[in-house]
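Q: Give me a backbone?
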Amino acid sequence: MTTNDGRDPIWLSETAAENIRIINRSTILTRDAGGYSAPGELFSTVLNLATLAQRLPQLLQQASSWLEREDEHDRLYHDGGASSMQCSLAVGGALTELDNAVRFARMLEGALDGAANRLSHLGQK
């Protein structure tokens, strides 16, 4: 599967994960430098992360839909053997965990939106 611009979801998700790692590194506080330069920078970062979290449920639901469709058409197998029960258990477990991830992403979005709202009132002396 590729995206409309020809980039595949694996590459795009790896890039998203790498960008979070880069943000982590660039905001490490040290004795002399690092972190954020002002409350507005922190506000914008948190707000952007809230947007990221807002978009995760759709992505996760699309993954679940794909998995369900592939399973319904019997296009999946389990590497543990020929038992279709193993495949069904793996699919069912994955769908449950993806559903949990959707709920947690929505909770994350709410928490980040709340933090951004409070940060929006802060300035630096």
Observations:
- The radius of gyration is 20 Å.
- The longest helix spans residues 84-119.
- The chain has a mean pLDDT of 92.
- Residues 64 and 96 are 9 Å apart (CA to CA).
